[in-house]
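thought: user wants a sequence for this fold. calling inverse folding tool.
action: design(structure=
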């Protein structure tokens, strides 16, 4: 009876009693808190025609953001999709920007961004509207932390051009005070 009640705690005691020693436990993994949320916007297969045939690779377009006004985007190209995404994430971390928004988590004024043949129109929206946008514009606005905005894309629908035009529009946004001063209302 007494032998069953005695707890055997370490491996040396177990081995001395003729029992199989336990394997030591692996230490628990420490999960790192990510600074940015990530979203893959587009993955395309691209081909280069070379002397020996076709050389296929993959390009990835990734947007990152912390939801508090900091966002970035990047592209990566590699022979495999995960490698392309990894390269794009590294490029996005190096290419971050910060914006300021006003109450109701919206932008201060209407703005149009242009990149190549693509125009992106952004308009502030009242609280509770949400993000009225499609695809790449929605990705960059959600990850930047903007919650209420209308948008419309004119011209080119290439994902990278849309993201660059949206970035160009967001970088032009002024604070509410600057905007009112320009209009002579302050």
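)
observation: tool returned 186 residues.
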């Amino acid at each position: 009876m007494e032998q069953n009640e005695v707890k055997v705690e370490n491996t040396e005691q177990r081995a001395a009693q003729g029992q199989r020693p336990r394997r030591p436990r692996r230490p628990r993994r420490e999960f790192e808190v990510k600074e940015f949320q990530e979203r893959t916007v587009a993955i395309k297969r691209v081909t280069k025609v070379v002397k020996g045939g076709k050389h296929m690779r993959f390009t990835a377009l990734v947007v990152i953001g912390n939801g508090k006004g900091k966002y970035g985007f990047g592209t990566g190209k590699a022979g495999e999709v995960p490698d392309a995404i990894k390269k794009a994430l590294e490029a996005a971390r190096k290419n971050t920007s910060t914006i300021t928004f006003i109450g109701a988590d919206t932008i201060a004024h209407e703005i149009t961004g242009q990149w190549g043949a693509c125009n992106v129109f952004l308009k502030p929206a009242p609280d509770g509207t949400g993000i009225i946008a499609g695809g790449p514009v929605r990705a960059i606005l959600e990850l930047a932390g903007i919650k209420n905005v209308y948008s419309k894309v004119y011209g080119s629908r290439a994902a990278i051009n849309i993201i660059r035009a949206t970035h160009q529009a967001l970088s032009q946004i002024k604070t509410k005070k600057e905007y009112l001063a320009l209009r002579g209302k302050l």
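thought: summarizing for user.
answer: Here is the designed sequence. The mean pLDDT is 87.
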